[in-house]
Design a protein that fits this description.
alpha+beta, eight-stranded mixed beta sheet, 11 helices, 15 strands
Amino acid sequence: MLVFLGILGLFAVSLADPTPDPWGVYGEVCMANTPGVYDPADSQTVPWYTVNLDEDPKTRWALVARSRAQGILDTLETVHQFIGEHGLLGEMGELLWQILLNSMDDAVFHLPEPYRSEILGFADAANIPVSKLVLLNLFYEISKGCTSIVAEDPNGKIYHARNQDFGTFFIWNTTLETWQQTIALKNILINVNYIRGGKTVYKGVTFAGHMGVLTGMKPHAFTISTNSRAGKSWDNLAAWFAGQANERIELIWADRQVLEVANSFDEAIDYLSTVPLFASGYFIVGGRKSGEGAIITRGPNGTDHIERIDTSKPDGWYVLETNYDWDKVEFYLDSRIGPGNDCMKRLTRANVGLEGLYQVLSSKPNLNKATVYTSVMQVDDLAFQSFIRDCPNPCWFV
């Protein structure tokens, strides 16, 4: 019941509002070109950790594990509350929760390396059951939303930014008026500097306990963010749980893998267009040169569409993706593409930069109650900033 109380309140206000905008106070608000919205110092609240890729996978995450263990358990408890005996399904839900955890105990041995060893080592250092940590790594396949933008300034310089929305429908906190899982995820958000031979190989944003990357940058090469896409994935996951060998990987691991193996924008596009996946998704990639910005619309077995920056076209100086296909109409209760495009046009190409894209992603409803963080990146300036976000009322729930 807690899940729906806040939503009902939002509907009541929006439907009662007499203004021409049918969403009333929950309507579109663009912050483009608004002074004071972007403050780089705010990014310092997201902690940085170093992961040494030369170290044994079972120990390389030990510091993160020990310092973030309770936050991970709190995050997982939001799933338990949603599914378990105090959730929507009552006692049947508690049985489902236990079955789910038991399946994770078996699933860990089907994971590819180095993720299997990393999860086993992390669980040991954090004193968290392995089953719960495996479940955490599957989160992105089941509950997520986002906005990603790659834009080119008048000089051909490429910038990349994203909002990560996560936690919708996982327990509405009536006191704080937001999603309980979204709150929990903010407490385990981390930046990671991945090093090898004492030098940075790539940087990433992730949730402690996630062995993949959701937003990342390979210096002087490319940037990446991943958005979820609706589509059937349970057959692939079921086969994996059953121990059937396959070469599929999760979206968050594909991001980390491409940061490992690709050394340019074109190499990243090639890898992400062909890697076998468990679930559908959108890979948004930025590069170094004019025109190097793309949205790859992926199914589990291949690429359905690629949209690229094309400055010869009107408004072709950027690409923007939420969670809908290039040829589909977005769900009316989740309208973020239109507002995002409207705000980018108001920003104009002349104002593209870290500050400008942060302003757009501070605009409602692309900033909403499920938004965990905003990241802004520039690959040659080595700019990589992450900001924990809160959407002030009135703010849309998803």
